[in-house]
Amino acid sequence: MTTQDSSGSAPKPPAKDPWDLPDVSGLSVGVLGGTGPQGRGLAYRLARAGQKVTLGSRDAARAEQAAAELGFGVEGADNAECARRSDIVIVAVPWDGHAKTLQSLREELAGKLVIDCVNPLGFDKKGAYALKPEEGSAAEQAAALLPDSRVTAAFHHLSAVLLQDESIEEIDTDVLVLGEVRADTDLVQALAGRIPGMRGIFAGRLRNAHQVESLVANLISVNRRYKAHAGLRATDV
Questions:
Q1: Which residues, including other chains, have CB under 8 Å from residue 43's CB and lie 6 or more apart?
Q2: Residue 140: strand, helix, or coil
Q3: How many whole angstroms separate alpha carbon 70 and alpha carbon 9?
Q4: Residue 152: helix, strand or coil by DSSP?
Q5: How many alpha carbons lie under 13 Å from residue 156 in its C-beta half-sphere?
Q6: Residue 175: DSSP 8-state
Q7: What phi, psi does 148 have (nearest 5°)?
Q8: Which tens digits make up the pLDDT trace of 151-199?
Q9: Which residue in 142, 146, 149, 188 has a CA-CA distance of 20 to 30 Å to 100?
Q10: 223 secondary structure, DSSP code
């Protein structure tokens, strides 16, 4: 029998704790663009935390060599095989190859949870500046190109230098996570939290991804001015 509160309505269920995140330790992670600095760094940190990781590259031999150098059981494969093997796929390819890479992997990425961490940036003598794709952001472009995948956005503001530095035990930063389905963003938040020092923070839907991607241009300016590897922390959360 359903009980009612004093207003005569059935009581609402208790709100879900936003920090009650799923266990992702058993999921396999693929990194497209895993031989580049950002992808390689993310692969290293996740594998070091105990995640099963496959590095992807257009060249399988190059991916296998990079994986062997990382250790921690990381495997290497061409991008298509990397996508097929993985439960979660991180897209860390250069912006100028973003659309072409995803178009070629639409079938392999169908049904997968895809995390886009690509930052559309341009560079001139004044420094880095944000580009705005026709779709609105790299993440929205990924969602348009991968209609059968579950696209999220995260891991934009991480220093590749810190990620790859083996002497650093913890990386003090938050990871802003965007997506359309809360269950998917919860998984990405949990994955970010596998890396010591990191915390995944829900930051809205994909329509807000442009601001997150663009902020990297500002962080590049901060890092150049202060000779740092700055990240982000969300306060009072």
A1: 29, 31, 34, 53, 55, 67, 70, 74
A2: helix
A3: 58
A4: strand
A5: 31
A6: E
A7: -100, 5
A8: 999 999 999 999 999 999 999 999 999 999 999 999 999 999 999 999 9
A9: 188
A10: H
User: Residue 226 has which token pair?
Assistant: 């202060």
Chain-centroid distance, C-alpha 28: 14
List Cα–Cα distances, 60 to 83, 112, 167, 227, in angstroms: 13, 21, 28, 35
132-165 CB burial, b ≥16 within 10 A, e <16:
ebebbbbbbbbbebbeebbbbbbbbbbbbebbbe
The span from the CA of 43 to the CA of 47, in Å, is: 6
Which residue matches tokens 């330790």? 25
User: Position of tokens 């915390």?
Assistant: 199
Return the bridge partners of 152, or none. Answer: 115, 179
Tens digit of each residue's pLDDT (9 = 90 or more) over 47-97 = 999 999 999 999 999 999 999 999 999 999 999 999 999 999 999 999 999
Helix 37-48 vs helix 60-70: crossing angle, to nearest 10: 50
Class of 28-226 in CATH: alpha beta
Measured torsion, CA atoms of residues 209, 59, 41, 130, in degrees rounded to the nearest 10 = -30
Instruction: Give me the sheet containing 173-179, strands edge to edge.
Output: 75-78, 52-57, 28-32, 88-91, 113-116, 150-153, 173-179, 198-202
The neighbour count for residue 65, using CB atoms within 10 Å, is 14
Length of the chain: 237
Structure token pair of residue 149: 């995948």
The secondary structure of residue 11, as a DSSP letter, is: P
C-alpha span between 153 and 156 (Å, rounded): 8
Tokens of 102: 């995803």
Task: Tell me, rounded to whole angstroms, the distance of Cα 191 from its chain centroid.
Answer: 9
Contact 89, 52 (CB under 8 A): no
